[in-house]
Amino acid sequence: MAACGYDSQLEVSRPTDQANIVSLPTPSTRQIGQRPQNTPDPGLVPSPSLPPPTPTIQPTPTEVLPTATALPTSPPKQTPTPTLVTYPKPALNIAQVGPTRPVPEYSGTGEVTERDFYSPLLKKIEPYRIYLPANYHTSQERYPVLYMLHGYSGKVDEWMWYGIFDRYEELLAKNQVKSYIIVLPCGEQEYWVDHPNDGLRWGDYMAHEVVAHIDGNYRTIPLKESRAIGGLSMGGNGALQIAMNYPDIFGIVGAHSPTMRTFDQKIPWWGDLNWFLAHDPVAMVKTNQSITQVKLWVDDGNDDKVWRPRVLQMKQNLDDRKINYVWQSWAGDHDASYWRAHVADYLQWYNGVLDFKK
After folding, report:
1. Partner of 24 at 20 to 30 A CA spacing, among 12, 227, 318, 331?
2. Long-range Cβ contact pairs of 108-115 (< 8 A, separation 24 or more)
3. Residues 150-187: pLDDT tens digits?
4. Is the CB of residue 302 less than 8 Å from the CB of residue 308?
5. How far apart are CA 189 and CA 267, in angstroms?
């Protein structure tokens, strides 16, 4: 990160030859510098004969070539300085609680573990499962994150029943998806929503605490464009309302066979009609502005006679507002075989819309 010399002058003394000095007479009346013809000047000593002068040889003219003009040179290429991305820090520092538990039913190339953390909002410990790509521990890369919510009868392992990690690694081996993190959080049977009357805040828990814990403990890309939330059945309902109620957290949402109850089908702890309309995706998409800013996927089995009518109603509301979204309707019912058949379709869609920041 970080010559010298001097000049000398040589003085030569020449001795005086006295014998050669002749006294000159006083000039006469003749004009100085004149003398009679053929009369020697006695006062002058004849000079010795000198050889004739050497003629001066003029150099032969030579052709003067024009001075070469230097060609313009391109400036040296400047190597761009990489821009360092400053990512926001998690709003909460929520540490892991207890030891990490391996998941024996998984045998792929990545890493799947089950972990717990204490939720200050729920005031209890909640688990989650997480999939880390095979190169996670050998690189310094950051990864997008996909959060997949379980249904009313499920737990953190439900998406594993449908082969989410196996299908993902099959796609990865075929270069049909890139490496990203998959998180399976726990929502119990609470519809992933804040309860009324100062009840348990399951929506805040998911959008803030789960996300903050994952961003604080793993090398994620903690930006909404690189963060997706999806879910099946109750989880599909939860993913939709969370994406609309927390627009700064999630930029991508997928609803897979979402169960969207009417107010008459409400669960006992639900609130009044105003609370319902503020959390019901069918009603929300009529006026919610956040839904216009997310990348949205909705699918449903066309044999689902119970929940499909409200899914189609929401689809109509989206169409009325001319909102861009992906719609898929496949053969099948509201059951495990339907989701297992299409989990690879979900994974490829999320891969295509997540921002990898590479």
Report:
1. 12
2. 108/165, 108/166, 108/169, 109/134, 109/169, 110/134, 110/136, 110/165, 110/169, 111/136, 111/137, 112/165, 114/156
3. 999 999 999 999 999 999 999 999 999 999 999 999 99
4. yes
5. 10
3-state DSSP percent of the chain in helix, strand and coil, to 5: 30, 15, 55
Cα(179)–Cα(226) distance, integer angstroms: 12
Helix 164-173 and helix 336-353: axis angle, to 10°? 50
The pTM score is: 0.77
User: Within 10 A of 195 (CB to CB), how many other CB atoms are there?
Assistant: 16
| Tokens 């929940």 belong to residue | 307
DSSP assignment of 80-139 equals: PPPPPP-PPPPSS---EEEEEEE-TT--SSSEEEEEEEEETTTTEEEEEEEEE-TTGGG-
What are the two backbone dihedrals, phi and then psi, of residue 201, each rounded to the nearest 5 degrees?
-105, 75
**Bigger pLDDT: 238 vs 88:** 238
Report which secondary-structure segment, H or E, holds 243. Answer: helix 234-245
Q: How far apart are CA 311 and CA 300, in angstroms?
A: 8
Q: Give the whole-angstrom CA distance, residue 123 versus residue 240.
A: 25
